[in-house]
């Protein structure tokens, strides 16, 4: 069985006004089907960068990331986009389109009409069924965070990549959001990036990213 995601010898350099920053220095990482993994590490250690590389949204400067045994292409073309639709992305900031209701925001990500049926059940489990007709600006941050989880799960993705889904939430709300995420994952694989070690589930395989090297696991 092919791994869902596999990083082999991944290097990533950023070139900016600060010069060349080598963020990832030879990362090997494998995510099997259904596996739940967690990446922790200090601020600025490259966790978000690693997640974007795994998602195929950022090209590594060395090494490769395979998705289901095939490398992500260098161009973000339509074929890559279709493959990426098997991946649910939850970003650090719950970015939603302000002019659309929560329901419309979620449906813009839908790949098929029939996902609307499953959407209600998912929204109920996430505790936001009553809020689907609201615009994001009338929702709390935690509610928007749950909305962005619903959007990430709408197509029953085979893998969910979540970047600090509890950022900006208080501890209790953060724990609740992670619990809801876990309950709604089903058989999907998960990579959860966080610097808050309190929200890590004991059953997750936990990696530590520091100085460009991924340890543990
Ligand atoms: N586009 C960019 N150009 C130049 N440097 C960048 C760029 N994006 C990130 N960096 C730098 O790369 C390093 C890693 O950033 P990254 O956002 O991946 O860290 P992080 O572990 O997610 O941090 P945090 O916990 O604060 O979210 C940081 O030093 C950051 O300043
Ligand atoms: Mg980050």
Ligands, ions, cofactors: adenosine-5'-triphosphate, magnesium ion
The main sheet orders its strands as 6-7-8-3-9-10
Based on Cα principal axes, name the global outline.
globular
* Cα-atom radius of gyration: 17 Å
- The CATH superfamily turns out to be P-loop containing nucleotide triphosphate hydrolases
The name CATH uses for the topology is Rossmann fold
Reported for the largest beta sheet, the result is: 6 strands, mixed
Order of helices and strands: EEEHEEHEHHHEHEEE
Query: Helical stretch count?
Result: 6
Structural class label: alpha/beta
Average the pLDDT over all residues and give the rounded result: 91
What's the β-strand tally?
10
The fraction of residues in strands falls at 25-35%
Structural domain tally: 1
The CATH class turns out to be: Alpha Beta
Helix percent reads 25-40%
Q: What labels describe this entry?
A:
217 residues; alpha/beta; Rossmann fold; six-stranded mixed sheet; four-stranded antiparallel sheet; 10 strands; binds adenosine-5'-triphosphate; binds magnesium ion
Quick structural summary:
Helix content is 28%, strand content 29%.
Textual characterization of the structure:
- With 217 residues, this protein is of the alpha/beta class.
- It has one domain (35-57, 83-216): P-loop containing nucleotide triphosphate hydrolases (Rossmann fold, 3-Layer(aba) Sandwich).
- It contains 6 helices and 10 strands.
- The chain has helices at residues 47-54, 78-84, 102-107, 115-125, 141-153, 171-185, and strands at residues 5-16, 19-31, 36-40, 62-67, 70-71, 87-90, 159-163, 189-194, 205-210, 213-216.
- It has a 6-stranded mixed sheet with strand order 6-7-8-3-9-10, sandwiched between helices. A 4-stranded antiparallel sheet has the order 2-1-4-5, covered by helices on one side.
- A hairpin with a 2-residue loop joins strand 4 (62-67) and strand 5 (70-71).
- The protein starts with a strand and ends with a strand.
- Bound molecules: adenosine-5'-triphosphate and magnesium ion.
- Magnesium ion (MG) binds next to helix 1.
- The site of magnesium ion (MG) has 5 residues, from helix 1.
